[in-house]
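Q: How would the structure tokens look for this protein?
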Amino acid sequence: MDQAQLRVFLAVADELHFGRAAERLHLAQPYLSRTVRALESELGAALFHRTTRRVELTPAGRALVPLARELVALAGRARDAVTAAAEGRSGRVRIAFAGPSAQVYVGRLARAVREDHPLVDLDLVPGRYGATAMAALHRRDVDLVLAWFVEPPAGVRSRRIVEDRCVIALPTGHRLAAGAEIAPAELWDEPLVGLPESAGSMVRSQLVGRCQEAGFTPRFVQSAPDSWTCMALVAAGVGLHVTTAGAVEHMSLDGVVVREMAGELPAVSIHLIWRDDGDPVLRRVLDTAERALPG
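A: Here is the predicted structure in token form.
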């Protein structure tokens, strides 16, 4: 029992006339009649009562009608789904990101993808910072990355979305809060809070490098899983936290002051990063990102 047989059966069931059904399907009537007989033979039951004056459905034919419509519709949906996926109009794109500033751009992209490609699912994978996000991309655990880097990563495609600068958050009343700027050397022996080293944060990596250039290793007293927790720890007086100016715009600063870094750390940028695999659905999302995240 194939789709062609079911379509012929449904046309005859609708018209209750072999000639009109043949015209409707643009088929020769003898071919249509042979198709119905073959289906009846396969099912082992007559589907129509035929006389010289009329055609009627048998009880078996009436039972088949709703199931045949369901099967034909399901086959149509299957064809549409396959075509949409092949053309990139449907599918799934997984995007890794981290931090409050990156989340703003993820939100913009998600809204634009929903508007442009309603059949595309954008799976959000939070908590992935620079190095860990790139590792996930290379493992093919994700398809897109929004992460901070000083320079675009090698071996992948990327586009810079926005450039930002590093700043330092201190508890209100801290001795260094009186100045407008804080030099890395002033962080000697200061307690710091930050993301775990294993998170692969580019900002943390830059801070460590600058402090080592000043002759000391920064003293991290507490790790936190995300920027919001880091800021809460700063407000509680646990330590200082180096982040980006864009990030602090989206976080509560109760009990916190933000100061510039003297001899500022190298500028960091959020990059949109992907593998150039020719995936059609990823290509459509990237085209949408050109509009939603113009850079």
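The chain has three domains: 3-86, 91-163+269-292, 166-266.

The first helix runs from residue 3 to 15.

Upvote if useful.
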